[in-house]
Specification:
This protein is mainly beta. It has 3 helices and 8 strands. A hairpin with an 8-residue loop joins β2 and β3.
């Protein structure tokens, strides 16, 4: 999920545990409150996540927290580092990597709700 309102990139603790990803201690631990219903969440671990969307492959450093919204949340740090442009009318994201233009579009409703 891409979220321009998020000040951090986030990986779910469940995903990290199920995939047995190696975590490291966060250099500047902090607290988040908006990610779940149980109040403040202490962020003290990070993980480097490799992922792909279609033919696009990338790695992103994420803070590890217990979230229910999804497995990975690409926030403003990812958008800034990739110089992502967002078309809010079509809800499409575009950026260039290795001299190739990448366009990400939302899934059609029937695919988004297939799970």
């Amino acid at each position: 999920m891409i979220d321009g309102g998020s000040c951090t990139n986030v990986a779910s603790m469940t995903m990290v545990e199920k995939l047995a990803l190696h975590t490291s201690m966060h250099l500047r631990p902090y607290k988040l409150q908006w990610l779940n219903d149980s109040g403040e969440v202490r962020v003290n671990k990070q993980v480097l996540v490799s992922f792909s969307i279609g033919k696009y492959e990338d790695q992103v450093l994420c803070d590890v927290v217990s979230i229910q919204a999804g497995h990975i949340l690409l926030g403003r740090p990812w958008q800034y580092n990739r110089r992502v442009k967002h078309d809010s009318f079509t809800n499409k994201y575009s950026f260039e990597i290795n001299k190739k233009i990448i366009n990400l579009a939302p899934l059609p409703p029937q695919q988004a709700y297939a799970d």
